[in-house]
Amino acid sequence: MEPHFAKLNKPQKEIINSILTEAFSDDPVFSKIFSNNMEIRTFFNLAIEYVNTFGEIHIMDDNSGVALWMPPGIRFLYIGNSFKTFPLIWKSIVFIITVRLSSIRKLLSISRFSSENHPKESHYYLFAIGVANKSKGMGIGKKLVHYAFSRFGNNKPYYLENSNIVNLGFYNSLGFSLFNTSSFKWYTIFQMGKNLVFSEKA
To answer: Model-level pTM greater than 0.85?
Structure first.
């Protein structure tokens, strides 16, 4: 079981969507933004297409885990990019007509807050990582992150936002440090970085 980078086909997108929906169904922030797993799945349907187009998706050979990365200089789910290809246009429309307006408002609110609080320094952004329930405890998450380090460069700057306090130890073990805890409305976000100048914000 090893990770690799790939532009995903439709069956692979559906597989990793199931993994991410399962992984984030009890996430503290996602559970407050979205009203049910169907909305989370619809969101990841769009997010996966966006990262597959503008970022990198790292997936395990046996489809047991996945990580979504955005490269330096590319904003995640930037509206101007979301209408550049037909698949993104279609998935954006499906998201808008499927997800409740209240959920969309919450998502836009936290997305704006997140964007404003990203470090100013150019960085690789780990938006999401998930492992299938049946494969947890096998070190797959660490393999995925170490693969990114080897692919992008271990000394490059990395950034992530963690909303689950129980995951802090996992990211610490990978070299990420907690540099800020942000509170916005009912969101609590642990901002973590590796090789970053933490004092500078966008």
So the answer is: yes
pLDDT at 160 over 90: yes
What's the sign of the alpha-carbon dihedral 187, 193, 199, 202? Answer: negative
The structural domain count of the chain equals: 1
Measured CA to CA, the distance from residue 3 to residue 20 in angstroms comes to 16
Q: What range does the domain containing 66 cover?
A: 3-194
The answer to the question of residue 202 being in a domain is no
Q: Which CATH number do you get for residue 31? A: 3.40.630.30
pLDDT tens for 22-65 read 999 989 899 999 999 999 999 999 999 999 999 999 999 999 99
Would residue 135 count as lying in a domain? Answer: yes
